[in-house]
From TrEMBL:
Transmembrane segments: 97-117
Keyword Transmembrane found: yes
Name of this chain's protein: Uncharacterized protein
Species in which this protein is naturally found: Myxococcus llanfairpwllgwyngyllgogerychwyrndrobwllllantysiliogogogochensis
Keyword field: Membrane, Transmembrane, Transmembrane helix
Amino acid sequence: MSVAVCVGCGETKEGAFEPCDGCGLDPARGGTDRMLQARSLLLSERFFGEESLKELGRKIRTGEPVSYDTGRLSQLVEELKTQKLPVISRSTPGCSIVTWSVLGMLVVLAAGLAYLYGSWRH
Ligand SMILES: [Zn+2]
């Protein structure tokens, strides 16, 4: 996990999509708020060094305006739209449950068809 800064309060946290201990802001639960997620992603080790992140965090804490790179933000929004980041899918365990229940239903269906086919042949 990389170090990131909370866009809400400037607290340092682990990973851009981790919920913040300071203010409770959870970008992954923002759902469709891609701009919030993009901003969170921007304020992470992926784009800034540790010192810059500390400085950005200090700015947010003291209420100073932080200038986000709008070009990079829209690029990140696009990236979030097209690719499913592992951190996001990790925070939605319901996804795998749906996949498994669909698979289970298919197995039951196949078994049922095989049984019907078998009894029809006899
Ligand atoms: Zn926070």
